[in-house]
Specification:
Distance between the termini: 13 Å
Radius of gyration: 16 Å
Strand content: 15-25%
Mean pLDDT: 91
Number of strands: 5
Number of helices: 3
Structural class: alpha+beta
Helix content: 25-40%
Shape: globular
Length: 135
C-alpha cells in the first residue's frame, strides 16, 4: 500500500476571514455559541463554548481525522474526542469540532509524552485509516 508523503496539514489556513466565516457556519449548524478566535497557525482554532472548531486545509479528506481518532482509541492511545461527527467544508477549508481539554494542575510529564509519541510511531500502518497521509 502506498501512502501520501505529505502530512495531513502541510500548509497554513491562509484566509483567516474565510476560516472565521466557516467557524460561524459550524456554530450555527451545531447550535453552538458564537466562536471566538483562539489562534492561527497551520489551522485556525476557534472556541465556541466547550468546543474547539478547527479550520484548516488538509491534504486529505477531513473525515479521516475523525477516523484516525477512532483508530488510535482502538489501540489504546488517548486522544482528544471529537465534539461532532460532522465535517464542514467550504472553498478548500475543512472544519472539525473537538471537545475542549481543560487545564491541569500538574506540570507536564515529558517522559509520558515521549512514551506516547513512541507508541504512536510504533503502530503498524494498517492501524491508520486508508487515505490518511503518513509521511
Amino acid at each position: 500500500m502506498t501512502r501520501d508523503r505529505r502530512p495531513f496539514v502541510d500548509r497554513p489556513v491562509g484566509d483567516t476571514a474565510a476560516a472565521a466565516r466557516l467557524a460561524r457556519h459550524v456554530a450555527v449548524a451545531l447550535n453552538l455559541p458564537t466562536p471566538t478566535l483562539v489562534r492561527v497557525g497551520m489551522n485556525a482554532l476557534f472556541r465556541s463554548g466547550d468546543v474547539i472548531v478547527r479550520v484548516g486545509r488538509p491534504s486529505a479528506p477531513g473525515h479521516l481525522s475523525l477516523e484516525l481518532v477512532d483508530a488510535l482509541l482502538g489501540v489504546g492511545v488517548s486522544v482528544p474526542a471529537p465534539a461532532s461527527p460532522d465535517v464542514f467544508e467550504h472553498d478548500g477549508l475543512v472544519a472539525t469540532c473537538w471537545h475542549v481539554i481543560g487545564p491541569v494542575e500538574q506540570p507536564v510529564d515529558w517522559s509520558i509524552v515521549g512514551r506516547l509519541v513512541r507508541r504512536v510511531h510504533e503502530l503498524p500502518l494498517d492501524v491508520v485509516p486508508v487515505g490518511y497521509p503518513v509521511p
